[in-house]
């Protein structure tokens, strides 16, 4: 009797081991740290975890045909698929947010729109991080995230949303793409970086030449094809974002990157709402007159732009080389320009194309020059998000 029981037990153990290796069962007993997930990981502190789709202690039984299909998917294939989806989110979703902003501010005042976006996204992210077990930060730890959130989101995204009432979304994305150039300049001025190499200096020069190509004809001939105050506001917001990025390296932020991001979004969203009220936008905001396209665009910015794409961006920093992750800075403006042209009939002139090529070439030189100078040095984690 006992020998039969032992044999049956050994067979069950062998079966369980086989299922574990095949990936059909991911954990036995207790709450799984990460079961089969459809979403991407959100980087929290020094580790990343997949959001579980079940709260129980086991993965529910699936039909034999489905199990057979799952067992044929190797871990390498699954990891490769997640990488492709994450890069697609960062490339395409962030590139499309500029057009999303333009549609949202058609009937929602710009500062209030951005405030609602970041408040809701920050609240969701904060609740998610707390649900995963991260303790609530004490009041004193809100100081730097609150200042930084107001600086980045009010100064950066607020000026961008205001400017997109006057500047095509593709041009706005192209001007925001100069962020690495501003960061390099400010880092050198504040001694945060050593002397720039020849490649980085050439990139800085190219970047400013590209901006000059965009501004030049209107400055010289007053053609009014480009709204200069709007374009200047985008550049000013990009400069503010770069300054905030440099300052963030010198202050103590929460250890959890996700918690820090949520706190910044909440503080920035509140600052945007207050600014919208002070500037009189609240009197011009009538929810019943907001179009479906504006509401849908706002929802898209919250769910896809601020949650999914930002989650993907943080996860990519844990699994991919920084130089590869940084390539989104070259793709986003191209996506934004093409979407603005195809969906919103935004004009693309020859000067715009030339400026885009010159600016992106300058950004590439600055990035590669920076990486070349830091070969062998440990990578520091920073929130240098150029997306809208």
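Sequence proposed for the structure above (388 residues):
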């Amino acid at each position: 009797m006992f020998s039969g029981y032992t044999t049956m037990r050994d067979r069950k153990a062998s079966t369980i081991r086989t299922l574990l290796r095949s990936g059909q069962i991911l954990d036995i007993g207790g709450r799984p740290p990460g079961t089969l997930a459809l979403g991407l990981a959100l980087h929290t502190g020094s580790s990343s975890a997949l959001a579980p789709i079940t709260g129980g202690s086991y993965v529910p039984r699936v039909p034999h045909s489905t199990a057979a299909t799952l067992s044929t998917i190797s871990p390498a294939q699954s990891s490769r698929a997640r990488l492709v989806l994450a890069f697609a989110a960062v490339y395409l979703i962030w590139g499309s947010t500029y057009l999303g902003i333009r549609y949202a501010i058609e009937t929602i005042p710009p500062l209030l729109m951005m405030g609602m976006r970041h408040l809701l996204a920050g609240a969701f992210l904060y609740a998610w991080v707390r649900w995963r077990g991260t303790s609530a930060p004490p009041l004193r730890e809100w100081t730097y995230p609150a200042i930084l959130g107001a600086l980045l989101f009010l100064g950066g995204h607020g000026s961008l949303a205001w400017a997109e009432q006057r500047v095509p979304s593709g041009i706005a994305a192209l001007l925001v793409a100069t962020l690495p150039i501003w960061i390099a300049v400010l880092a050198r001025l504040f001694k945060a970086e050593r002397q720039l190499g020849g490649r980085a200096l050439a990139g800085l020069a190219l970047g400013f030449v590209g901006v000059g190509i965009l501004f030049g004809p209107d400055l010289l001939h007053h053609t009014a094809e480009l709204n200069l105050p709007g374009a200047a506001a985008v550049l000013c917001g990009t400069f503010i974002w770069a300054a905030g990025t440099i300052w963030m390296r010198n202050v103590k932020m929460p250890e959890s990157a996700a918690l820090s991001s949520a706190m910044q979004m909440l503080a920035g969203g509140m600052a945007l709402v207050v600014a919208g009220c002070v500037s009189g936008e609240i009197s011009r905001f009538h929810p019943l007159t907001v179009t479906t396209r504006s509401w849908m665009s706002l929802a898209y910015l919250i769910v896809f732009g601020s949650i999914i794409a930002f989650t993907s961006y943080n996860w990519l920093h844990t699994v991919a080389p920084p130089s590869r992750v940084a390539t989104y800075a070259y793709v986003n403006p191209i996506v934004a320009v093409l979407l603005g042209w195809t969906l919103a009939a935004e004009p693309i002139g020859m000067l715009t194309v030339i400026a885009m090529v010159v600016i992106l070439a300058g950004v590439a030189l600055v990035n590669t020059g920076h990486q070349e100078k830091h070969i062998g040095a440990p990578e520091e984690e920073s929130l240098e998000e150029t997306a809208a």
